[in-house]
């Protein structure tokens, strides 16, 4: 077997630079901040030698000293995986551009799993955690108790406890964009499909839909809102048929705002089974701007949640929260969505 090459140590760089090991540690690992001073010339020399020798810091040793290891924790939802996967990819790219790595855990609305990941991250000296999951109403109280002891987190959509940071996409603005667009396309009976009423974001969509219709003096009849009786995000053909029976066959909807792109695609397929055309008979919009919306026929009008902007805001908040003086007034960031107009409307 070939022996692994010996790792470059701080002392190796110190000998090459002709300075103390402590001075090299100050430059590369920010140690000895109050005791050690180095000139700009020496700093540049150390950085050049470290690059030439391909120096990599000893993460385990830094953890033992209680030092942050330039890693951010992420707790990811297992439900809406397509959306959160795209968002995670944007966050990884943003974190990497700032010299950070990610450690990732997945949960499914289980407060015990969230707590286990928080404790694991803390034990690994990962002080900041991004929580990319929708907080269902039935688990909020459990999570509030959990996060009392883990406040250094950025929460998706809204804080779980009042002192936390959060980043969200403006859901009501998204609904306004969709309704404005459908009214512009002469749609008179705009219906709404929601996958659950226990998800706070679905409640916001309902609120935004009502507000947007009121601005156009259109009816926001509750009969034009279909909520999946089984709170699952992935629909079955039976669910699709029940939704279309109420919204199209009974309520004569000429447009449906779907809760996500997957529902929208299956609603379009269901309309075809009924012998109806999209958008001639019924316009359909999605939400999330997934790739499948670009490749289906007709191409799907949808909402882009602007993951790159979301990632910048989330990482900004995460790094700012490491400062104890981080002002409460700046702990919430709102990302404005974009309307993507395609053939389905």
Describe this structure in words.
With 345 residues, the chain is α/β, with parallel strands linked by helices. It folds into three domains: 10-57, 434 Repressor (Amino-terminal Domain) (Orthogonal Bundle); 71-169 and 308-335, Rossmann fold (3-Layer(aba) Sandwich); 171-304, Rossmann fold (3-Layer(aba) Sandwich). The protein contains 13 helices and twelve strands. The protein has helices spanning 10-17, 21-29, 40-52, 59-64, 81-97, 111-123, 137-147, 171-184, 200-215, 237-250, 261-273, 292-295, 307-320, and strands at 71-77, 101-107, 129-132, 153-156, 165-169, 190-194, 225-227, 255-257, 283-285, 302-304, 332-335, 338-340. Strands 2-1-3-4-5-11 form a six-stranded parallel β-sheet, sandwiched between helices. The protein has a four-stranded parallel β-sheet with strand order 7-6-8-9, with helices on both faces. Helix 7 (137-147) links the parallel strand 3 and strand 4. It starts with 9 loop residues before the first helix and ends in a 5-residue tail after the last strand. The model has no long low-confidence stretch (mean pLDDT 87).
């Amino acid at each position: 077997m070939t022996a692994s090459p010996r790792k470059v140590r701080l002392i190796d760089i110190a000998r090459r630079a002709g300075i103390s090991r402590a001075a090299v540690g100050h430059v590369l690992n920010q140690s000895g901040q109050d005791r050690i001073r180095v000139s700009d010339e020496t700093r540049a020399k150390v950085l050049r030698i470290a690059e030439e020798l391909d120096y990599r810091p000893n993460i385990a040793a830094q953890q033992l000293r209680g030092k942050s290891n330039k890693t951010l924790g992420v707790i990811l939802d297992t439900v809406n995986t397509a959306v959160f996967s795209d968002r995670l990819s944007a966050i990884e790219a943003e974190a990497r551009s700032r010299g950070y790595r990610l450690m990732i855990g997945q949960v499914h609305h289980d407060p015990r799993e969230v707590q286990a990941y928080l404790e694991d991250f803390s034990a690994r000296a990962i002080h900041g955690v991004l929580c990319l999951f929708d907080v269902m109403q039935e688990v909020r109280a459990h999570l509030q108790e959990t996060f009392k002891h883990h406040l250094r987190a950025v929460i998706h959509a809204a804080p779980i406890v009042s002192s936390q940071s959060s980043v969200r996409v403006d859901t009501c603005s998204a609904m306004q964009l969709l309704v404005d667009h459908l009214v512009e396309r002469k749609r008179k009976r705009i219906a709404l499909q929601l996958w659950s009423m226990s998800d706070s974001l679905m409640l916001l969509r309902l609120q935004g839909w009502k507000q947007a219709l009121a601005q156009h003096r259109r009816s926001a009849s509750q009969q034009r809102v279909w909520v999946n009786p089984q709170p699952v995000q992935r629909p079955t053909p039976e669910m699709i048929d029940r939704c279309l029976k109420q919204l199209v066959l009974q309520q004569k909807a000429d447009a449906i705002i779907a809760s996500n792109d997957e529902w929208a695609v299956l609603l379009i397929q269901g309309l075809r089974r009924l012998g109806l055309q999209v958008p001639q008979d019924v316009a359909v919009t999605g939400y999330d701007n997934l790739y499948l919306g670009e490749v289906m026929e007709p191409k799907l009008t949808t909402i882009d949640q602007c993951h790159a902007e979301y990632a910048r805001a989330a990482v900004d908040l995460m790094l700012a929260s490491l400062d104890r003086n981080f002002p409460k007034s700046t702990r919430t960031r709102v990302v404005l969505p974009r309307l993507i107009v395609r053939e389905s409307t």
